[in-house]
Fold this sequence. Notes:
By secondary structure, this protein is mainly beta. It has a single domain, classed as Roll (Pnp Oxidase, Chain A). The protein is built from 3 helices and 12 strands, in the order αβββββαβαββββββ. The protein has helices spanning 18-25, 70-75, 91-98, and strands at 30-31, 33-39, 42-48, 51-56, 59-66, 80-85, 114-115, 122-123, 129-141, 144-156, 165-167, 170-171. The longest helix is centred in the N-terminal third of the chain and has 8 residues, at 18-25. The protein binds flavin mononucleotide (FMN). Residues 32, 46-50, 64-66, 69-71, 94, 98, 100, 166 line the site of flavin mononucleotide. Flavin mononucleotide is lined by residues 32, 46-50, 64-66, 69-71, 94, 98, 100, 166.
Amino acid sequence: MVTPHPQGPGTLHRPVTADEHRQAMRHLATGVAVLTTRHDGLPHAMTLNTVLSVSTRPPTLLVSLGTQSRTHGILHSAACYTVNILASDQRHLAERFAAKRPMGMSQFDGVPWEPSPITGNPVLPDGLLAIDCRIGRRIPIADHTLFIGDVLGVTPARTGAAPLVFACGDYEPEGR
Length: 176
Ligand SMILES: Cc1cc2nc3c(=O)[nH]c(=O)nc-3n(C[C@H](O)[C@H](O)[C@H](O)COP(=O)(O)O)c2cc1C
């Protein structure tokens, strides 16, 4: 039996601050992905870890982007995105695509990529795999938008390699 909170369900003595919420969520370990898309015909990428499989029937994937990111603006008019799941030795790519580099080809300088056969978005061949999605819904929530994608296909790259893991504000050391 659940004992009711003395002040009623959902009652807190004060609101949780943004910083407290951020600190709490640091404890949730996640994988790391690079979302790719195209803008004016040029490739664009950003690092993200808010990737959620919403459903398997039909296969549906969710990503959450802050409204201040450039990619958020691009996905408002793009039809699709690709989620490249990173391997444990790809921390450098996570860091590169989290940085605000100039948009366009130079963002990918020295990074091997191939166009997805399904969407044409960049696929990172040294990642674990790439998931192509068509954007089905855009749901604004506070300062983020949830982009719900219908999965169009999965391109295996290095399936079986260990995933890159992010926890407590840092990447897990390789091979731990
Ligand atoms: C490990 C990690 C995970 C991140 N996850 C997200 C995320 O889920 N959503 C988001 O909007 N930004 C996320 N970011 C921040 C973006 O990568 C960063 O703001 C980036 O500069 C946005 O690029 P853009 O302005 O070109 O879109 C993450 C950064 C790191 C390092």
